[in-house]
């Protein structure tokens, strides 16, 4: 009513009511004395009997806006980002509006879909700030932290992604809306811990989510939890359990026609059989996974399967086949700007040459992998690559050999309390 009459806070303020109190009343701050509310209503020339009808009118406006925001969020999920942004730009509301945090959250999702990371991060940060100011009842703060984590993850900043995700879990309100956000956060935390090789921590998070899995109504989240659990169990050397959960996840993903998850499960099973020296079973699993190529949401995941096929054929000394798939792995990881997997693929390519005694050819791949690991702060991975480089230099370059060992020691000091890294596999 104040804005419709072109009045500022200062225009209504006097010795009986301050601009701050007027602002608190407008924002619904609970501790304002009710006499101040009546005083403000009178100053606006309103009758208290008019208030119910004004509120009903405002409630209808809010319902219309919420429907508009819901429709835009649906359009974003279809990948129609330009159309969604056009509609978002048409919405003009003040920061104290009840839906201002939701508006900025949805803008952030749109920018993230367009891979405009800086704009996305600014929008999510604004959503968090406004959610704190405007009585967040929809868990927009927690959801925005989850999205900030995903933005970092997609830019290969996994440690930072984990920090945002933990902030999201701290911010989540059990009594608020968007209850699914809690399970998305738990799933993402488990995946980030898996990528960082913090296996035991990841399994604890998975167990926390598993205890509540019947409450998760989003099949994709449930399937991702199966995938993460199977992978973490494999990394922990619990192969029988890994196969069990991979098979359960495979059946569930088949029923839901989730080809991405089916692909993941077949790859995980193939990696388990590779470590158990069951070559035929492993090969069958990997080629079944690749059969879903073209049906996947993203071909980024192909890197894992290519790497494992390279490992499989390297172990069998089928050098030509191994090299073909390792080259595919490197190319695919580069195409998708997937630094963790590219680091891994380069390291395995170095192993491929080292196992043949071709240390001079292995060194460039190790050096590229080391440069990436340093660039993104993958400490454990640096240690593993430095060890391999030291093996390559041991008999030919004493100075480089000692330099690698010293650098490896310094890195290990920084990570001595952490668990094995995801890239420790496939020696």
Which secondary structure elements does this structure contain, and how are they paired or packed?
Layout: H1 9-12, H2 19-26, H3 34-43, H4 51-77, H5 81-89, H6 100-113, H7 117-133, H8 140-154, H9 158-171, H10 180-195, H11 199-210, H12 219-235, H13 239-255, H14 259-275, H15 279-290, H16 302-315, H17 319-335, H18 339-355, H19 359-376, H20 379-393, H21 398-414
Helix pairs in contact: 4-5, 4-6, 5-6, 6-7, 6-8, 7-8, 8-9, 8-10, 9-10, 10-11, 10-12, 11-12, 12-13, 12-14, 13-14, 14-15, 14-16, 15-16, 16-17, 16-18, 17-18, 18-19, 18-20, 19-20, 20-21
CATH superfamily of the largest domain: Tetratricopeptide repeat domain
Query: Sheet with the most strands?
Result: none
Percent of residues in beta strands: under 5%
Helix/strand structural class: mainly alpha
Radius of gyration in whole Å, from Cα? 27 Å
CATH architecture of the largest domain: Alpha Horseshoe
Shape descriptor: elongated
The CATH topology of the largest domain corresponds to Serine Threonine Protein Phosphatase 5, Tetratricopeptide repeat
Name of the CATH first level of the largest domain: Mainly Alpha
User: How many strand segments?
Assistant: 0
Q: What count of helical segments does DSSP give?
A: 21
N-to-C series of helices and strands: HHHHHHHHHHHHHHHHHHHHH
Spans of at least 5 consecutive residues with low confidence? 418-427
N-to-C CA distance: 70 Å
- Please bin the fraction of helical residues: over 70%
- Number of separate domains: 4
Average predicted local confidence, pLDDT: 89
């Amino acid at each position: 009513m104040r804005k419709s009459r072109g009045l500022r806070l200062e225009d209504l303020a006097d010795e009986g009511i301050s601009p701050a109190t007027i602002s608190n009343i407008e924002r619904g701050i609970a501790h304002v004395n009710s006499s101040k509310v009546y005083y403000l209503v009178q100053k606006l020339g309103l009758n208290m009997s008019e208030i119910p009808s004004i509120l009903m009118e405002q409630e209808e406006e809010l319902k219309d806006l919420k429907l508009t925001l819901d429709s835009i969020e649906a359009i974003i999920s279809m990948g129609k980002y330009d159309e969604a942004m056009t509609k978002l730009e048409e919405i003009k509301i003040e920061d104290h509006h009840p839906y201002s945090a939701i508006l900025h959250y949805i803008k952030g999702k749109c920018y993230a879909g367009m891979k405009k990371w800086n704009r996305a991060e600014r929008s999510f940060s604004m959503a968090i700030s406004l959610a704190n100011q405007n009585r967040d009842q929809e868990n927009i703060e927690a959801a925005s932290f989850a999205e900030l984590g995903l933005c970092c993850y997609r830019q290969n900043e996994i440690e930072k992604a984990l920090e945002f995700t933990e902030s999201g879990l701290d911010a989540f309100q059990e009594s608020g809306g968007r209850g699914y956000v809690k399970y998305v956060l738990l799933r993402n935390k488990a995946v980030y811990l898996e990528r960082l090789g913090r296996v035991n921590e990841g399994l604890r998070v998975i167990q926390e989510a598993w205890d509540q899995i019947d409450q998760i109504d989003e099949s994709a989240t449930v399937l991702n939890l199966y995938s993460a659990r199977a992978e973490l169990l494999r990394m922990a050397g619990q192969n029988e359990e890994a196969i069990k959960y991979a098979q359960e996840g495979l059946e569930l993903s088949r029923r839901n026609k989730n080809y991405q998850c089916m692909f993941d499960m077949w790859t995980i099973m193939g990696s388990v059989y590779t470590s158990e020296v069951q070559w035929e079973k492993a090969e069958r699993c990997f080629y079944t996974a690749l059969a879903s190529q073209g049906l996947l949401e993203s071909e980024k995941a192909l890197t894992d399967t290519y790497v494992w096929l390279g490992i499989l054929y390297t172990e069998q000394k089928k050098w030509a086949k191994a090299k073909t798939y390792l080259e595919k792995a490197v190319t695919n990881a580069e195409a998708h700007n997937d630094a963790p997997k590219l680091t891994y693929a380069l390291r395995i390519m170095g192993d491929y040459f080292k196992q043949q005694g071709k240390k001079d050819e292995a060194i460039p791949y190790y050096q590229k992998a080391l440069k990436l690991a340093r660039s993104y702060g993958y400490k454990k991975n640096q240690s593993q690559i430095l060890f391999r480089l030291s093996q390559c230099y041991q008999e030919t370059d004493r100075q480089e050999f000692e330099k690698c060992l010293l650098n490896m020691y310094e890195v290990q000091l920084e990570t001595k309390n952490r668990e094995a890294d995801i890239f420790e596999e496939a020696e």
